[in-house]
């Protein structure tokens, strides 16, 4: 059985600038106040660093660096999740934690859904991860990850994925929450936000509809 099945998926994602050690990031994820279990052995991370050619017929083509890890995340209800790690440019690595996001539970897959009153738990999770990792930008959305904040219509990896190409003005409405480093404050449109963790700014959507209503 697949670790995570069905859909839609609620995606908690963030970007960190290179150079970083993926193992160190994962270790720090396990230090936050929400318990996170990683079910892949440490040596599994070697696949990320080794990568694979973009063109399988051309071993000299650009190498893709990505990996998927199986997680269990202990919110109020224990949840399976997938962690996708993707090097989207020479400067940035994207992390995305995906949860089963339908409002209804899926007992046949042992997957609890996400009720509207549980959404704030994931915003708290985003905040807790920022407190530990101090990432540049993080966000929470249904069927959308951090790459949706960029004004880039190119397949990654691509050097256009730079902090200078973040576009909050046109893309903020895609997300339930966005948390950015204070150094990026000038990129925020006139939207209400809260200061968190001394160095972060948290925007929360005023839309509090059930996740199933957003499809």
Summed up:
The protein has 215 residues and is of the alpha+beta class. The protein has helices at 22-29, 46-50, 119-133, 168-171; strands at 9-17, 35-38, 52-53, 63-64, 66-74, 78-87, 92-100, 137-142, 177-181, 194-196, 200-204.
Topology:
Layout: E1 9-17, H1 22-29, E2 35-38, H2 46-50, E3 52-53, E4 63-64, E5 66-74, E6 78-87, E7 92-100, H3 119-133, E8 137-142, H4 168-171, E9 177-181, E10 194-196, E11 200-204
Antiparallel strand pairs: 1-7, 1-8, 2-5, 3-4, 5-6, 6-7, 8-9, 9-11, 10-11
How would you characterize this protein structure?
This protein is α+β, with helices and mostly antiparallel strands and 215 residues long. It has one domain (9-214). It contains four helices and eleven strands; from the N terminus they run E-H-E-H-E-E-E-E-E-H-E-H-E-E-E. The chain has helices spanning 22-29, 46-50, 119-133, 168-171; strands spanning 9-17, 35-38, 52-53, 63-64, 66-74, 78-87, 92-100, 137-142, 177-181, 194-196, 200-204. The strands form two sheets. It has a nine-stranded antiparallel sheet with strand order 2-5-6-7-1-8-9-11-10. Strands 3-4 form a two-stranded antiparallel ribbon. Strand 6 and strand 7 form a beta hairpin. The longest helix is centred in the middle third of the chain and has 15 residues, at 119-133. The protein is globular. The model is unreliable at 208-215 (pLDDT under 50).
